[in-house]
Amino acid sequence: MLVRPDGEQLELASDPEFGVALSEDGRHLAIASIKFGRRDRFRLCLADLSDGSAQVLDCPANFSIDSLRGGVVTYGMPVGGEPVGFSWAPGRAPWPVPYQEREVDRLTGTCLCRTEPGDYVITRPDGSKLTVPRRYDAQDSRLAPGARWLYDFWYDPPTMTVTDVSGPAPGPTMTWPIPGGRGSGPVFGRPTWEDATHVLLTIPHGDVRAIRIDATSGATERLGLDRHGRGEPGHVDGGTEFDVGGFVEPFQLPSVTRHPS
Q: Do residues 206 and 158 both lie within one domain?
C-alpha cells in the first residue's frame, strides 16, 4: 500500500510478501505477490511510486526478490529442486543469472553475503571485498542504506550494534541500548533508515512503541505513533498503539566516505 502525504492510498500489489526492493532513485518498487490456494499465483510487480502503475511478470513458481537496480529486477526461484537466479526488465523475457543468497544495497550496489564458515563478506562495486566476523550471539547482520553501516541486534540485553564498513577494514563496533526492548524480541519488523545515520525502530513490548537512534552517538529519541496526524492512535488487540510493520527508505544517496579505489 502506497500512502501519499495527503492521505491518498494506492494498492500497488495484492498479496504482497514483506521482502521488497526499492530502486536507487526511490521511484520504483519491486514486489513479490504470492498467493497459495487451489490455484497458486506468483507475480513479480514492478510498481511506479509516482502514479501507482505496475508492470507485472507471471512466474511459474514461488520466488524471492534479490535486488532492483538500473530498472532490472533480480530474483531467485527453484528450478528442478535447485535455486536459480533470474533477471527481468519490463519489455524483456527473464534471463538466467548466477544465483547467490545476498543483500544488495539499493543506493551503492554494494553486496552482503555469507561465507561457508558463517562470516560476512561485503563486495563493493569496484570489486574490493571486506570480511567481517559474524557474532553468533546476535541476529543476522544487514547493510544500512548507503553501505556505511553493518548492523544487528542482541536479545539480552536488548541492544543495537553498528560497525562502520566503509573503509578498507571494519571500523569500530558501537553498541547502543534499546529502551523498552525485551530479550524475547528487541525490535519489530525491519528498521527504517531516515538518512545515513538515523534509524527508526518499532518496539514490540512496553510503553515505548517507537524510537529513533543516532548510529554515531547512540542518542535515542522516543517517538509517538500517530495514525493520521491528528492525535489519533491506531489500535491492535488490547487497545495499544499500533506498530508499523514495514517502511520504505525515503532518502537518496547520502554523502558517505568511499572506500579508496
A: yes
